[in-house]
Design a protein that fits this description.
Helix content: over 70%
Number of strands: 0
Number of helices: 3
Largest sheet: none
Shape: rod-shaped
Radius of gyration: 22 Å
Mean pLDDT: 85
Distance between the termini: 72 Å
Order of helices and strands: HHH
Low-confidence stretches: none
Number of domains: 1
């Protein structure tokens, strides 16, 4: 059963999605588990947040690239085979095309949720800092 799906991992697009997701999730987890109550964390978050957003948005685009690549392979094989064993050609190419789209979408959604969580922590830290500064000035 698993051998039927191993051909999907021959695609460089799938490996690109997995590599990019590994890098992005490594950075997200580093930000989540590092010390969140410091100015250094806030600076690190503010430096990485826009870049992480861009990297995360590349994941579904890579999935779309895999879809186009899978469909192109399917049409190319159909042209070479002249209609022989057409069902096997179409099903393999369509499976690759849909798998890359699914993988790109599955990788981006949890990352966006984690990034939203980090942005909320950062905003709370900024608001708490402003409130504390206001209280300190009022107490002086």
């Amino acid at each position: 059963m698993i051998n039927d799906w191993l051909f999907l991992f021959d695609s460089p697009v799938i490996w690109s999605i997995l590599l990019l997701a590994f890098i992005v999730y490594g950075l997200l987890l580093q930000l989540i588990f590092s010390c969140r109550e410091s100015a250094q964390w806030l600076a690190q978050h503010r430096a990485w947040a826009p870049n992480l957003r861009v990297l995360l948005s590349a994941l579904p685009l890579l999935g779309l690239l895999g879809t186009i690549t899978g469909l192109l392979k399917t049409f190319f094989r159909m042209g070479l085979e002249n209609g022989l064993a057409i069902q096997e050609i179409i099903s393999g190419g369509i499976a690759e095309a849909l798998f890359t789209t699914q993988l790109g979408l599955l990788m981006v959604v949890p990352g966006l949720l984690l990034l939203a969580y980090l942005n909320r922590l950062s905003n709370e830290m900024l608001v708490n800092g402003l409130i504390n500064r206001t209280k300190n000035r009022a107490g002086e």
